[in-house]
Each structure stands twice: as structure tokens, then as C-alpha cells.
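Protein in question quoted in full.
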Amino acid sequence: MTTVSPDTGVGPLLRGWREQRRISQLDLALRADSSARHISFIETGRSRPSEDMVLRLAEQLDIPVRERNALLVVAGYAPRYAQTPLDDPAMASVHEGLERLLAGYEPYPALVVDGRYDVVAANRGIALLMEGVAEELLAPPLNAMRVTLHPAGLAPRILNLPEWRADLLAQMERQIALVRSPELRALYEEVAAYPVPDRGAAGVRAGERTPSFALPLVIEHGDRVLSFIASIATFNTPMDVTVAELAIETFLPADPETAAYLRERLP
């Protein structure tokens, strides 16, 4: 039986993930086809887990792919998951598929963001909404959270900004808890500190124009008021860190007027 340091080994990291997920050692053992005693030995450094055990525990704890690589390295194994740049020739099929998906969703807005909410692809619907945004916010890498919440971005035009802002910040908090990224934490602190424009009577309540089944994005565009319901999709069982951190966000018109306006502007 190999002993690793209880302070620097993989055990404390796994214990941290388990406690964050609020799973007992017994429950984790049952899910991973192990024993509570063995899980305890791993967490306290009395036992070094096999590579297969690290991956099984990571799977049961729903640990992100990037963090699984970190666990493997700390445990003394090679990283299992590649991190291939999206512009690498090996990712051509992924990149082409994303571009086709975004184009097919037009005239409705859709974009793809990475794990830092940087926009890696977007369609003409998104470009339409970006009209009037300060040039410095549109310089690469365009960040979806920054451009949405910045006073020189979309924020002054979002009629239900308090509700939409709260939802975005809560989304970031959940992501930070999941991936423990200093970069994401810094972005959160930046955008959370942006002043919130006071729209006074011009604001609208979240459910005023649209069905109440989901929080809408209600935004001015020129002399029009557009309303959208957003959805987010990710890849199923990704085997690459880059792909694992991609998210496809689409905006479905929440009323006939919005749909008609987009078809008119983006035939």
C-alpha cells in the first residue's frame, strides 16, 4: 500500500470535491463500486488510488474534464484528456459543425462561448444585437458577460436588467464553484462591480411581455423592443478539454413581433 502526503496528494482534492457535492464516503463508494474504507484511505493519503479509480471517482463526482487532468497529474499519472485549440486542423469538423449550426439558427441570435465566456463563434443575429456597443468591447476576444453587463455594452438597453443581471451572475457563481478558475473569479468580480443603469419607469418586469415559463431577455433595438428566451447546450461526454468547455447559447424569440423583426432585418 502506497502512502501519499495528506496535505498535497490527490486525496484532499477528492475529499474537497466530495464535500462540495455533499456526498458521503459511503454513497461515493457505492457509486464507484468501492468501499467506504477504501475511499477514506484515499482521502487521508493512506492509499494511492489507481488511475482507473481516480477516473471513476471523478466521473461520479461530476468533476470537469480539465480538473480530472489535474487530479491525474497529482496522483502521479499522465493527463487523459487533450486540450486542442479550436483552430487546430484536428478540430476542423467541430468548428465547421458549430458554424453550420449557428448559420442554420439565423435569423435568430446564437453564439458559442468557451469556459471564460469568450465568444468563439457567433451568427448574424448576434451581430445585429451588438449594433451600438462600444468598439473597445467588441475587440477580440469579445467576452459575452462583459459586453452584456458593461455600461457601454448592452446593459443600458436591457429593460429587465436587474433580473437578467442577477441570473447571469448566479450562472457565473455556479460555474466558479464547479471549475474553481481564478480567471473566471476575476471576471465575475469585474462585471459584478459594473454600475447598474437606472431605467426608472422605462424598465419592465421579467414576465410583463412574455410567458412566465422562463426568464426573458427584453432589450431595446432602435425603436423596437425585442424579447428572447435563452437556452444553453453543451457537448455530451466530451473527451477534449476545449470541447468540454464550449457552450452554445441560442436566443428564441419570445413573441411574434420579435420573430417578424428579425426575419425582416436578416432575410
Q: What stands out?
A: The CA atoms of residues 28 and 138 lie 45 Å apart.
